Amino acid sequence: MPVYMEISRLYRTVTIVARGLISPDEIRATAQELADANVRAFAKIVEVTGASTAWTPDQVGKVAAMFAGQGAASSASDKRGPIAFIVDPARNSFAQAYADQTHGDVPIKWFQSLHQARDWLKRIEHERATAVAPPVNLTPWSDPDREGLMIRGDRQREVRIKALDAV
Question: Can you tell me the mean pLDDT for 61-70?
């Protein structure tokens, strides 16, 4: 099953949605795409309620290490953005293992709804008080320059993102 990733550079947000059985190759490809996109400091929403994987904590640790050193342009002083996992409470082993492997290097929390995750990220970002304020009346989901990517196995394709019309 696929992993869908969307990057909003305007709002420094990455959204990842995974469905079905996710292979190690798909997770590594997603991690590599994030590293290549240089979005280390961006807030991330990772929705995995409909996904499953059979990773060991050691394998999760390797992915966490890849994120810790992601991108040639990043340095040790670069801040890492918060990660909000949206999980099924009965199946949050990947999110729990990821949080355990990062040892508090980055704010990580898991939620049962997208609304709770967005509220938490909004509080985190407000606390950081970035120097550049986003334009008024826009949200990360109305960013016209956001990018979409579909990963299925070892295949990848860019996804055209349509602008949402206000009704």
Answer: 66
Q: To which residue do tokens 């099953």 refer?
A: 1
Please, what's the largest Cα pairwise distance for the chain? Answer: 48
- Distance in angstroms (rounded) separating the CA atoms of residues 26 and 23: 5
Give the 3-state secondary structure of residue 161: coil
pLDDT at 45 over 90: yes
Task: Provide mean pLDDT across the span 58-81.
Answer: 63
Cα gap 13→125, rounded to integer Å: 11
Helix or strand or coil: residue 35?
A: helix
pTM of the model: 0.69
Please give the sequence-ordered ranges of beta strands (E in DSSP) within the chain, or none if there are none.
Answer: 3-8, 13-21, 43-52, 83-86, 108-111, 147-152, 155-159
